[in-house]
Amino acid sequence: TLQEPAERTRVGPGPGPGLACCSYGALKAWLPILSWLPRYRLTWLKMDLIAGVTVGLTVVPQALAYAEVAGLPVQYGLYSAFVGGFVYCVFGTSKDVTLGPTAIMSLLCSYYVDRDPVFAVLLTFLCGVIQTSMAILRLGFLLDFISYPVIKGFTSAAAITIGFGQLKNLLGLQNISQQFFLQVYDTFRPAVLRVPDVTLGLLCLATLVALTFMKSSLGPGSDDLPVHVRGARGLVWSFSTVRNALVVICATCLSYSFEVYGHHLFTITGQTSAGLPPFQAPPFSETTPNGTVISFNEIVLDLGGGLVVIPIMGLLESIAIAKAFASQNDYRIDGNQELFAIGLTNIMGSFVSAYPVTGSFGRTAVNSQTGVCTPAGGVVTSVIVLLSLAFLMPVFYYIPKASLAAVIICAVTPMFDYRVIAKLWRVKKPDLLPFLATFLLSFWQVQYGIVAGVVVSLGMLLYDVARPQLKGHGVTLDSGLRFPAMQYLSQMLFSKALTASSHRSVVLDCCHVSGVDYTVVDELRDLLRQFQQRGEVLIFTGLSNSVLEVLLEAELPGLKHVESVEAALQAVSGTPSYN
After folding, report:
1. CA distance 542 to 472
2. Which residues are paired to 5 by β-bridges?
3. How crowded is the C-beta side of 504, counted as CA atoms within 13 Å?
4. pLDDT tens figures, 209-242
5. What angle do CA 301, 307, 311 make, to 5 degrees?
6. Phi, psi at 8, each rounded to 5°
7. Order of all β-strands in the sheet with 506-509
8. Chain centroid to CA 454
9. C-alpha span between 300 and 550 (Å, rounded)
10. Which of 207, 281, 300, 500 has its CA 20 to 30 A from that of 465?
């Protein structure tokens, strides 16, 4: 690993990008590069070069393909693929994570930018501002309210949507709608298939699948096999790792050979802008071909929910990846610093015409498996992308769309995890509700799916808070006590203890109660008075010192506290167990 876990990065909030004293420790929290650059070794450089080149050969064809998913010209995928390597090298806290265009972000962008690069670039800038602001204000905890079932429901629906959306390129179909349900109708209605596109697309798909299985056939330890290993295993690993690049290069050579002789067999990418993108401020307005000026306010209104969904999903995806690989490779990350790095990447990306980016699981896995030692591997990857922009853009004209469609379909297939349904059923069946709500509604509008899943998850969470389980000897609150639960608790105690055929006292075990608010105190005062009027007692046990002090200061009538449940039950002779 890059460093010992104890000094890899700070854990939890840390100084991060918030306010901190001007010390070297605080500076390292702002600039994590200072924690590893002074100790950089020549052996690390070799591994970072290998990993950077390998990821570079992976990201170039993927970036071209993901731009197609976003509905943008292919060069915008490359514009989005190189800034993250430079920015994350300085500000990131994971040695493995690679930032760039992904299937999820490309799909989300396609919903909001309507094939307009100006909208896409401004969306990138605004997403970066929102993400950076969340880091500075330490609002990363808000991401914790998006549960695992919601994320899985969204990614599974996105995998189907993205994969199905690429069938038109794989089959050479024309005039296919953007909306998912209309896509299904247009795809399966009678149409003329382009046989060359179908043949090439299926051949590319079969090749990618075969190379993937070849890699898995190396055995359970194949993921840890470095690219420079000699022998047949190393050769197979190398070819399977850069399979996307190999397939696109071969398909492009085939397409070019036919185009040279005037045979236009395949649907190709077509004209692309050559050279590096200009470094300029993102556009804050747009002038249409007919002279109409679309103002900044109008663009923001058109982007609408995208200004919430895209920044949040970008942060979720990247931080989840960073945590997974930090755990796998035994080092720590700073979640708040990750927010800052992603936000700054998007802000800087908007100056080179990028669309929103986040961490890529597939490329991060390649980066880790090839033995990357520091975030400097991302710089090498960015250089590969810049070289492609500078010298290879004329070649990209001949890339068949069917080959890019095959790359995308293979990339998103692992995102659909059908096994998660069985896992949720075994662990907690109600968790299927937010999963299904998110999954089904995401086919209609992705923002509705996410919002529905979050609302259902929060509803289930609040229900548990408002309806605590009452169990054990006496009455045990097993999930704490807050104001939503107080009315329910009061009604239950009143109906079971004070309105029964014979009144009875109650022992309330509060060992899980960590705090109380004014509503709880006020309701307890009324409840204690009702017990006193009927000649019964309500005894509290297990109260923490802080909670007991609050209740004593409130001067509750007839307040009794005993250290243990057993002692309380002895004090109230004849009190039956309550369930």
Report:
1. 14
2. none
3. 19
4. 998 888 777 654 444 555 455 566 767 777 787 8
5. 170
6. -60, -60
7. 470-471, 475-477, 506-509, 538-541, 560-562
8. 14
9. 48
10. 500
